[in-house]
């Protein structure tokens, strides 16, 4: 049962970073998201998974108010998302979109400073606090050496760290990430994962879309699985790592193996399914 504080605020509400109820979104009448709900507590991390076209990016865009959901309610830190000004929203949430090849024409330092926009006053120069936030974010992500370089001179992995640094500089308690490690080599994937683990340890809540199921289950408190715009699963990692759940989400079977070094349970597609084309 929920506790009530002296002010009559539900304790459960205080602990929620974001809550979405019955979100629906349509494009030209076609349902893209249908009645999706989620709750994420402070400092928690959720991975959103599902096949191509399931509606994962659309969900993130609705949460970030890039898309206005046709139906449903979103509350961030107990406040109605639709009632927030853009600046208020940006103080609560930073969003890192999927890499789409577009590279903004700025230097690293300029771009990370732009992350401070919800805190900057119009026509005034950045404050000492802004400079500190930028320096801190660049140090956390290890990109100080690139500071003066243009974004288009960086590799994809280096650039992804700059996008994360700008989000850190924004100082929002909630981070939304769309496929943060896709297109990165294994070493850069590890580095980005470590940055996100460290951010979570500092108290940042996170919702990340990913196609890497083993990454999704590593360090996530919750998994939300979508298919055809609908929730197929929402719950803890153990509940997600079940053959019947994976089958329902992806329409194919998986096998489970234990990592030979650390014993961690991992999922692999069943290559013997559908005619044994996995045989040598
Ligand atoms: N602007 C648009 N016009 C028409 N259909 C769209 C548009 N944007 C998205 N869609 C459709 O909405 C569905 C969900 O797209 P979305 O990008 O959210 O899926 P996703 O789960 O993130 O996919 P992926 O894993 O491939 O990135 C897809 O069928 C897509 O074709």
UniProtKB/TrEMBL annotation:
<dbReference type="InterPro" id="IPR003593">
    <property type="entry name" value="AAA+_ATPase"/>
</dbReference>
<keyword id="KW-1278">Translocase</keyword>
<dbReference type="GO" id="GO:0016887">
    <property type="term" value="F:ATP hydrolysis activity"/>
</dbReference>
<keyword id="KW-0067">ATP-binding</keyword>
<feature type="domain" description="ABC transporter">
    <location>
        <begin position="18"/>
        <end position="253"/>
    </location>
</feature>
<keyword id="KW-0813">Transport</keyword>
<dbReference type="InterPro" id="IPR017871">
    <property type="entry name" value="ABC_transporter-like_CS"/>
</dbReference>
<keyword id="KW-0547">Nucleotide-binding</keyword>
<dbReference type="InterPro" id="IPR027417">
    <property type="entry name" value="P-loop_NTPase"/>
</dbReference>
<dbReference type="GO" id="GO:0005524">
    <property type="term" value="F:ATP binding"/>
</dbReference>
<comment type="function">
    <text>Part of the ABC transporter complex HmuTUV involved in hemin import. Responsible for energy coupling to the transport system.</text>
</comment>
<dbReference type="Pfam" id="PF00005">
    <property type="entry name" value="ABC_tran"/>
</dbReference>
<protein>
    <submittedName>
        <fullName>ABC transporter ATP-binding protein</fullName>
    </submittedName>
</protein>
<dbReference type="InterPro" id="IPR003439">
    <property type="entry name" value="ABC_transporter-like_ATP-bd"/>
</dbReference>
């Amino acid at each position: 049962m929920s506790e009530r504080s002296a002010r009559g605020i539900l304790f459960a509400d205080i602990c929620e970073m974001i809550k979405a109820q019955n979100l629906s979104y349509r494009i030209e009448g076609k349902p893209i998201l249908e009645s999706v709900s989620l709750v994420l507590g402070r400092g928690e991390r959720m991975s959103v998974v599902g096949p191509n076209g399931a509606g994962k990016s659309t969900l993130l865009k609705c949460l970030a108010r890039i898309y206005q959901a046709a139906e449903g309610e979103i509350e961030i830190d107990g406040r109605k998302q639709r009632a927030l000004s853009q600046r208020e929203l940006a103080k609560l949430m930073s969003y890192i979109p999927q890499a789409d090849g577009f590279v903004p024409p700025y230097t690293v330092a300029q771009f990370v400073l732009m992350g401070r926009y919800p805190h900057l006053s119009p026509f005034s120069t950045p404050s000492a606090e802004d400079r500190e936030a930028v320096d801190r974010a660049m140090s956390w992500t290890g990109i100080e050496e690139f500071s003066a370089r243009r974004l288009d001179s960086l590799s994809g992995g280096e650039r992804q760290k700059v996008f994360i640094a700008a989000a850190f500089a924004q100082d929002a308690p909630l981070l939304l990430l769309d496929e943060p490690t896709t297109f990165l080599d294994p070493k850069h994937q590890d580095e980005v994962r470590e940055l996100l683990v460290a951010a979570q340890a500092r108290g940042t809540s996170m919702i990340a879309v990913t196609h890497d199921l083993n990454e999704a289950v590593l360090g996530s408190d919750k998994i939300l699985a979508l298919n055809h715009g609908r929730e197929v699963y929402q719950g803890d990692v153990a509940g997600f790592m079940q053959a019947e759940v994976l089958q329902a989400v992806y329409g194919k079977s998986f096998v489970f193996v234990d990592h030979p070094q650390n014993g961690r349970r991992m999922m692999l597609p069943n290559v013997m399914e559908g005619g044994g084309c996995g045989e040598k």
